[in-house]
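Thread: Modeling a multi-component assembly for a lab meeting

Hi all, long-time lurker, first post. My supervisor asked me to bring a structural picture of a complex we are working on to next week's group meeting, and I have zero experience with this. I have the sequence lines for every component (175 residues in total). Could someone generate the structure of the whole assembly? Inputs are pasted exactly as I received them:
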Amino acid sequence: MDKKLQNKLYKKYPNIFKQRKLPMSQTCMCWGISCSRGWANIIDRICSILEIVNPEIEFIQIKEKFGLLAIYADNTNENGRFLLECAESMSGNTCEICGEYGKIRDLPWILTLCDDCYSKNKSHIMKSLPIGSTPILKGKEAKDFTKKEKANRNKVVSNKTIREALKSVKKLFTK
Ligand SMILES: [Zn+2]
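Re: Modeling a multi-component assembly
Sure thing. I ran the full set together rather than chain by chain. Output:
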């Protein structure tokens, strides 16, 4: 993520991003937020709720993994873990480049992009490998991988997350 936007999030949530100052022997947060700016709003929204429901949480690593926003953290509670899952699910239909509605793209590796960013960047993406992304797969291997990831993603969004969401929302309101 570009430094300006990243620093904005660091400044707004100094406790959640505390580990950014630790050496790489202790955390991956020292590498910064390893995804593009399109997901900044998701991170912002999640952090604003985490401050209330899981104030002791500390992010260890944030990156794009298989086209989804993956956030790893220390000191999580049940609400915190649920919110990190929500962030992952939301990224699944949010363009990583611009933040508009996006969907999974059948590239040699998995990315979530809107139609515009997909057509604008396709040739560039086909040639370069973004940081933290899945290695380039070719032919049948790539097709099988995409199919598997698509199935995984649908499963995450449709079943588990909705069930967990209902449980956690109920809990928040009964406190
Ligand atoms: Zn886009």
